[in-house]
Amino acid sequence: xxxxxxxxxxxxxxxxxxxxxxxxxxxxxxxxxxxxxxxxxxxxxxxxxxxxxxxxxxxxxxxxxxxx
Length: 68
Fold this sequence. Notes:
The chain is of the alpha+beta class.
């Protein structure tokens, strides 16, 4: 299998812009699973369908940082 490239080397930057206080335990755990521990923190994750699904569940608390 030599010579094959990884199909998804893209990354995505995620920032928490709103507190999870007052939201469900599941949403708080999703934020934690994304590796975010405090407001304003930016994390970089691989752009996978699993990460996109997690972001979709708590999109009201996050901001995606686009880079060119």
